[in-house]
Amino acid sequence: MIELADVQAAAQRLHGVAHRTPVLTSRTLDALAGASVFVKAECFQRGGAFKFRGAYNKIASLPANERAQGVLAYSSGNHAQAVSISARLLGIPATIVMPEDAPTAKLEATRGYGAEIVMYDRFADDREEIGTRLAEERGLVLVKPYDDPLVMAGQGTVALELLVEVPHLDLLVTPVGGGGLIAGCATVAKSLRSDVRVVGVEPATGNDTAQSLAAGTRVNIGVPRTIADGLQAPEPGELTFEVNRELVDEIVTVSDEEIVEAMAFLFDRMKLVVEPSGAAGVAALLNGRVHGTAVGVVISGGNVGVQRFAELVGGS
After folding, report:
1. Is 76 a catalytic residue?
2. Which of 77, 178, 206, 292 is catalytic?
3. d(CA 315, CA 261)
4. I need a surface site. Which of 33, 148, 192, 201 has the fewest CB within 10 A?
5. How far apart are CA 4 and CA 292, in angstroms?
6. How far apart are CA 248 and CA 257, in angstroms?
7. What is the Cα–Cα distance from 159 to 173, expressed in whole angstroms?
């Protein structure tokens, strides 16, 4: 388990390095949701997603001799970019294990930050096995995408900033992949406002956390087929699940079609370019899956290429 103090320490490390992302509002969104909605726009974070917070907090916390050897991560894109940017800022090499079907925009951005990329088949290979083996062979520090206390603490700074700006929230909504974002945010929310409800949103075809919480143990559903590539974890993290089973109030699901509709809404009404994973929370709001009076929603990222964005929203 992590504590509020861990997140506060992460906030100090990130001060002046991570962007303090804006909290945006929309009267149209308020009317449709029947609530006052506060959108934490992590699409404006370094690397285009919240992942920079956890990656930098982890890497900056490493002893100098370990850090100097370099780092390795496995990711479909956002964590890949976050680790690559963090490594570049700290002057160390980064190796990233990425799936062959990773979005082109994320792949090109990761390569552009100077990382070495190792490709694998998402549906046939085990990225954790590949990453662990390569890290050991090359003497690199493995930076996991979510199942690490320092990563979770870094992600929790999203909620720390949001609750400073909007302290009267009664509901906090975040997308859920491996569970690091919601674990960090729930830790902060329940520490500062014990009455705040924390609700996660998963794709309907990728509801591994919902199934796991219902079963009381981690359930592996295989790699889900969904447009939300950032939410394709086959099962919750071991550490994140322990936090989330204690602190998260509910998990709801949305369809890919509802995600695309939310992407189009955010573009049309709030002028935000949001990737499918990042739009999950707003999709849940627009479709009545979550209800509150003062609602904070985390837009987790905006890393979607123009061609892919046009393909998805063009028919919505």
Report:
1. yes
2. 206
3. 9
4. 192
5. 24
6. 25
7. 10
